[in-house]
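Entry type: protein chain
Record version: 2
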Amino acid sequence: MKLITTLAIGAAILAVGSLKAEDAQANFNKLCAPCHGKDGSGDTKMGKKVGVKDYRDPKVQAELTDEKAMKQIKEGLTENGKERMKPFKDKLTDDEIKALIAYIRTFKK
C-alpha cells in the first residue's frame, strides 16, 4: 500500500513539474518569441531590429547568468536611452520567470 501511495505522489509531482514546463513554454511563445523566435535564435524581424542574442549559442548562455536573466525579464532592458525589451514584472511571478529561464536554457546546443 505504501508503494502505491509513494508512486501516486511521485506521479503527481512529475505532472506538476511538466505543467510548469508547459507554462514556461507557453509564456515564452507568447511574450518572448516575437523577438527571440520560438527556437531562441532571435531570427525574427523584431529580433534582428533590436539585435537580440541567439540563445542556442553556448557562449551567449554562459554570459547570461540566471541573476542577469531574472533582472532583465523583470525590469526590461534599455540601452542608450532606447527600450530594447519591455519589463515583465507585472505579468510574471518570480516562479514563472525562473521557469522561463530554465526553458531558455533548453535552447543551448
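Comment: The longest helix spans residues 2-36.
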